[in-house]
Amino acid sequence: MPGPYVPNLVRVTVKWNHAFHGPSSNVLHVDRGAKTAQEAAEDFADTWGAWYEGGGAFGMVPMYQLLDQDTQLTGFSWQDLSAAGGNVGELPGYSLGGGASGQLPPDLAVVVSWRTGIGGPSYRGRSYIGNLGYSVLDASKGTIAVPKALQLKQGADLFITELGATGTLLVIYSRMGLGGMSTVNDAKVDTHFDVQRRRGD
Asked: What is the pLDDT of residue 39?
């Protein structure tokens, strides 16, 4: 990434693979605080994994239950964006596959909108959770079933809280002006499907 560089900023990429539809990813950013970039990435991966599998200190409802059984969380990559030539690395994924039988069209996704409490598009982010199982669908309305949207929002909110408890903060990074980051403190999940951007978001 070309400058300007932002102190303590680390980019983490969540990597998925579907047996028939191939790879996709979610790109997020964290403030590592006093930790190394690798330590912050490990905090992120451990907390996202707790959300994926269910559990963690706050008892997250597992994300894998919403995903098609041919989906795999294959790993994480990270890069220190605080200086030119920042360190990079890879972290392992999870053997647990998706828990839902039957798949919705592969490009349909639930959108998790990350909020900072500051107005404007530079202070919000999105993660597209795709490869969904049929259980997510409210067939009578053609939308995401309300209990499933609430399940995902609960998981996202607890992810923010539990990650923050490690000292690593989920942030929105903006390239506007000199660039900067704002701490995420809330998540929103709509009941309308969106189209997953498989190049990463």
From this structure: 98
